[in-house]
């Protein structure tokens, strides 16, 4: 009786170990329908976040529901439910959003575990809501760099550098990537010097007459000029003529007075 009990106990232990081994070795489903993406603000986050994902296409026509599982190290190895089966927002002709029901930390705690650093695979399954048969999957990876912080970029991948060089001919060569180093474009500075030479040497520049001409081409007299204006008769002749007239006048007066005196002397007394 004791041998039989021991044998049954041994079989139970072997079965449990086999079950645990099988669960631990659960493979991550392949992406048969496309990929998942997250919004930019969720590309980096922490264990208390519950991101929402967007599928790259719709579910097949024979799938009326979907769910979401998370695979990773520790308690996440067999795949833990992130979103229970639902048909809310499902689409068949375009991508649709899937909201993670709990944060990574809460999912781990509900399964008596913790978040551990490593790669995690997010798997969305399009399923038949009644039979739970999987009709196709969408997947995406993310990495916890420690027990708290995650990123959608593989931290083990080497960073690529984008260098943009603009030549003077206008051709631009670009190499794509993550860390960007953009040298400042070459700037050509042209200094234009205008030399304005003004000669003040009177011997090197011919004088220019700026005095306006009169109607006949004559230059009008300068008000500051002390010379008399020319009238056509020399001033000396005018002076002599004036003196002559003055002498004639004086002579006429003398002759007249002389005649009066002679006439008076001829009167009888």
Automatic annotation (TrEMBL):
It comes from the Bacteria. The chain crosses the membrane at residues 235-255. Residues 151-200 have a biased composition (Low complexity). The keyword Transmembrane applies. Coiled coil: none annotated. Keywords: Membrane, Signal, Transmembrane, Transmembrane helix. Residues 150-228 are annotated as: Disordered. Residues 1-26 form the signal peptide. This is LPXTG cell wall anchor domain-containing protein. It comes from Amycolatopsis panacis.
């Amino acid at each position: 009786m004791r041998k039989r009990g021991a044998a049954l106990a041994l079989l139970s232990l072997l079965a449990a170990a086999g079950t645990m081994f099988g669960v631990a070795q659960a493979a991550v489903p392949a992406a048969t329908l496309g990929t998942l993406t997250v919004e930019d603000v969720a590309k980096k986050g922490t264990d208390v976040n519950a991101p929402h994902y967007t599928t790259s296409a719709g579910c097949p026509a024979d799938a009326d529901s979907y769910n979401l599982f998370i695979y990773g190290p520790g308690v996440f190895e067999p795949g833990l439910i992130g979103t229970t089966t639902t048909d809310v927002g499902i689409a068949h002709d375009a991508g649709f959003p899937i909201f993670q029901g709990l944060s990574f930390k809460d999912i781990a705690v509900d399964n008596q575990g913790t978040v551990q650093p490593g790669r995690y695979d997010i798997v969305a399954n399009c399923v038949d809501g009644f039979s739970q048969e999987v009709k196709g999957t969408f997947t995406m990876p993310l990495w916890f760099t420690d027990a708290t912080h995650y990123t959608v970029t593989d931290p083990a991948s080497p960073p690529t550098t984008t260098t943009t060089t603009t030549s003077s001919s206008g051709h631009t060569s670009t190499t794509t990537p993550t860390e960007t180093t953009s040298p400042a474009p070459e700037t050509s500075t042209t200094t234009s010097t205008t030399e304005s030479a003004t000669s003040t040497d009177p011997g090197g520049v011919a004088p220019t007459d700026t005095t306006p001409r009169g109607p006949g081409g004559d230059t009008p007299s300068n008000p500051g000029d002390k010379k008399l204006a020319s009238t056509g008769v020399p001033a000396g002749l005018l002076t002599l003529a004036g003196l002559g007239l003055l002498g004639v006048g004086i002579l006429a007066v003398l002759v007249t007075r002389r005649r009066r005196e002679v006439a008076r002397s001829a009167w009888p007394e």
